[in-house]
Write a structure and sequence with these properties.
The chain has 214 residues and is of the alpha/beta class. It contains 6 helices and 7 strands; from the N terminus they run E-H-E-E-H-E-H-E-H-E-H-E-H. The chain has a 7-stranded parallel β-sheet, with helices on both faces. Helix 2 crosses helix 3. The longest helix has 19 residues. The protein is globular and about 65 Å long. It starts with a strand and ends with a helix.
């Protein structure tokens, strides 16, 4: 199957969606599919990564003109994808992909990766009022995001499609003879992910575990 994964953001920009897209594309290829990433993020040439090279909104770095829609339409027509998987309600390129997929008769899926604030909901209604009416399957990476998507779209069916990890990378080491506490976390080192809060919590968790073992 030939799959187009679409989002405004991708490497070399670093973030959760960017990493998830790269990993998803790799996992799909490992299963024998032909997965392409379609993005507006400038960067080096990469095999199976299509960078549209269109004007972007400063700061947000998302597409901002009709040129993006035309470029994406031409790409979808040329590549002939079997399915289009768009990512993030915050990505204008993702909405453009689901709209164009509905026009050319290609099945599409839109996955919400984040909680949606009131301002974003208003922007969706103002600029993409028909997004929920397009024949696009909807999914979200978590139960709360899925519930929000059901409310926003007025649809009852929103699939839960969690982000996954390679469990082999987190295999527990052989346990020593004395009890220990193993703490594992999957996050990127960004202030809003609060990695230092996790570090500060370790001594307290350790003291609690030691008291429990006495």
């Amino acid at each position: 199957m030939k799959i187009g994964l679409v989002c405004d953001w991708f490497a070399p920009r670093l973030g959760g969606i960017e990493t998830q897209l790269a990993d998803l594309a790799g996992a799909l290829r490992a299963r024998g599919h032909e997965a392409h990433v379609i993005t507006a993020t400038p960067g080096p040439a990469q095999r199976h990564v299509h960078r549209l090279g269109v004007p972007l909104v400063p700061g947000w770095r998302v597409v901002r003109s009709r040129r993006a829609l035309d470029a994406l339409h031409a790409l979808l027509a040329r590549e002939g994808y079997d399915v289009v998987h768009a990512h993030s309600l915050y990505s204008p390129l993702a909405h453009a992909a689901t709209y164009l997929a509905s026009l050319i008769g290609v099945p599409s899926l839109l996955t919400s990766h984040s909680l949606v604030d009131r301002a974003t909901a208003l922007v969706l209604r103002a600029f993409v009022p028909e997004w929920a009416a397009w024949p696009t399957r909807l999914s979200a990476v978590g139960s709360l995001a899925a519930e929000q998507l059901r409310t926003l779209s007025a649809r009852g069916e929103v699939a839960l499609l969690p982000n996954c990890i390679d469990a082999a990378l987190f295999a527990a080491p052989a346990r020593p003879p004395r009890p220990i506490v193993t703490i594992e976390s999957v996050l990127r080192l960004h202030p809003r992910k609060r990695p230092l809060a996790l570090v500060r919590a370790v001594p307290e968790v350790s003291r609690g575990a030691q008291a429990h073992c006495l």
